[in-house]
Amino acid sequence: MLRPRRAHAALRALLLPALLGATTIGCEGTRAESGPPAAAPPTPAPASGAERAGTAATPPSGAALGPGAAAADSLARAASPAIRALYVNRFAAQSARRMPELIALADSTEINALVIDVKDEMGPNYHSDDARISRNTISLGKLRNVRALTDTLRAHGILPIARIVVFKDSVAARLNPQWTIRRADGSIWRDHKGLAWVDPHNREVWEYNLAIAEEAVRLGFGEVQFDYIRFPEPYQSLPKQVFPADKGQSKPDVIAEFLKVANERLDKLGVRSTADIFGLVTTVAGPLEVAQHWERLSPVTDVLLPMVYPSHYPRGSLGVAHPNGQPYDIVYRAITRARERDAAIGITGRENVRPWLQAFSLGKPDYGAEQVRQQKQAVYDAGYDGWVLWHPGSKYGPFVAALESGPTASRKRRN
Questions:
Q1: Hey, which bits of 44-158 come out as E strands?
Q2: Mean predicted confidence (pLDDT) in 383-398
Q3: C-alpha gyration radius of the chain
Q4: CB 110 within 8 A of CB 403
Q5: What pLDDT score does 324 carry?
Q6: Residue 303: enclosing H or E segment and its boundaries?
Q7: Which of 89, 181, 323, 366 is deepest in the core (most CB within 10 A)?
Q8: How many whole angstroms separate alpha carbon 150 and alpha carbon 236?
Q9: Residue 84's CB: how many other CB atoms inside 10 A?
Q10: Which class does domain 8-402 fall in?
Q11: What CA–CA distance (Å, rounded) separates 36 from 310?
Q12: Measured between alpha carbons, how far is 363 from 65 in angstroms, rounded to an integer?
C-alpha cells in the first residue's frame, strides 16, 4: 500500500509519460498529487447493466455481544458477499482500546470486514512457532492472541482479512541478505528512503510469505490480501536494480505467477486470495514499470483492490479538472475501466473488484463523510458492491456518517 504523502509525486514523474499515451475513458489515468477543491461533480451517465463462522472467544473489553443481536446481525451480513471493510494497522490491532471501538463501529454499520496487518513493512505482527517466520520477526509489539481476535470478529459477523506486505520487506532483507535486490557492483540496492527490498524472483521469498498466509488462515483469517505485490520503482536517480534470482522471466509474469501460486494454495484452504494494486493499473493499457498489469493479475486473483485515491491523481486525469475535489468522477471512471477490462477477458461479477477508497486528507478539500459517500456511490454506479476505506492511522471518526446503518446486500445505482 502506498502511504499517503509519500510516493505520489515521484510516481507521477516516473509514470506520467506512459499515462499520456494510454487510452482510457476519454483521457489519461495516473496517480499523483492532488489539485485544489472544485465544484460538486456532475452526475455522469449511469453504468450498464461475510462470512459468519467460528465460536466466539471472550470479546475484548467493551466488545461484548448484545443478547441475540450479534447473532441476528451476523446472519444478515452472511446473506451478502459484498465486503465493506476498514483497514486496521499493526498498532490499532494490538490495542485493547481501539479494537473494541472498531468492532462496535462494524456492529452498528454496514462494515462487515476488517483488513488487519498480519505482516507489514516491519515484519510479522504475531508470534509464530514456524522457524521460517519467527527468525524474520523483530522485537516490536505484536498481537497477543490472534485466534481470540479472529474468533471474536467472526462472532460479530466481521470477516477477518489478513494483510501481508510481500516484497517491500526491509526486515527480511536485513536478516536474509541473500534474498535482496542488488546493484551492478554486487552491493545491496536500496530505495530512495534507504530501504532494501527482497527479490520478487526469489522462490524462498515466495515460500516465506506463503507460509505466513497459510498460518493466517489456520489462525482464523477468512481472506488473505497481498500488498506491495510489485517491484520497486526504478527511479533514474537510483542505481540499476539487479535481480540475483532472475531466470529470464519478465517482471509482470513473475508477479502474476506468485499470485497464481498463492491463489491455488489458498483455494485449497477455502479462502480468497486478493491483491492490492496501484489505482492507475485500471487505466494504463500495458504493465507499469513496477510490473502490475491488469490483464495478467485479474485472472489469477479472486479480487483485485486498486487504490483509486482521488488525491493521488494530477489535474486533468481521466478528464477530471480537480481530482481531489471530484472524488465521484475519479473513482467512477477508474473503476468503470476496470469492469470493462475484466469483461473483455471474460471475468464478470460484482465482487471481482473491490477498490481502496480515500478516508484521509491530502491537499484540499479536507476529506469527510461527503467525500466518502461520493466514492462509495461511484463504486456502485460502476457495477461493484464492495470497497475498503484506508486511513493510515485507522481513525475513521470523521467518516462514520458516510456509513449506512446495519448490513446491506447491495447499494442502488443511480438511474
A1: 84-88, 113-120, 123-124
A2: 97
A3: 20
A4: yes
A5: 97
A6: strand 303-307
A7: 323
A8: 44
A9: 27
A10: alpha beta
A11: 11
A12: 40
**Ranges of each domain in the chain:** 8-402
Question: Is it the case that residue 297 has pLDDT exceeding 70?
Answer: yes
Q: Which of 336, 21, 285 is nearest to 328 (CA)?
A: 336
C-alpha 324/C-alpha 365 separation (Å) is 7
CA–CA dist 13, 19 (Å, integer):
11
Q: How far is CA 224 from the centre of its chain?
A: 10
Q: What is the pLDDT of residues 184-230, one digit of tens each?
A: 999 999 999 999 999 999 999 999 999 999 999 999 999 999 999 99
Asked whether the beta carbons of 329 and 320 are under 8 A apart, the reply is yes
Q: Based on the number of CB atoms within 10 Å of its own CB, is 298 exposed (0-12), middle (13-18) or buried (19 or more)?
A: buried
Q: Mapping DSSP to helix (H, G, I), strand (E, B) and coil, where does residue 85 land?
A: strand
* Residue in the block written with cell 515521484: 10
Asked whether the whole model's pTM tops 0.90, one would answer no
pLDDT value, residue 139: 74
Which residue has cell 454506479?
381
Residue pLDDT, tens place only, 154-183: 999 999 999 999 999 999 999 999 999 999
* Average per-residue pLDDT for the chain: 83
391-414 core/surface letters (b: 16 or more CB in 10 A; e: else): beebebebbeebbeeebbeebeee
Terminal Cα distance for the chain, rounded = 34
| Spatial CB neighbours of 19, under 8 Å, sequence gap ≥ 6 | 28, 29, 30, 280, 283, 284, 317
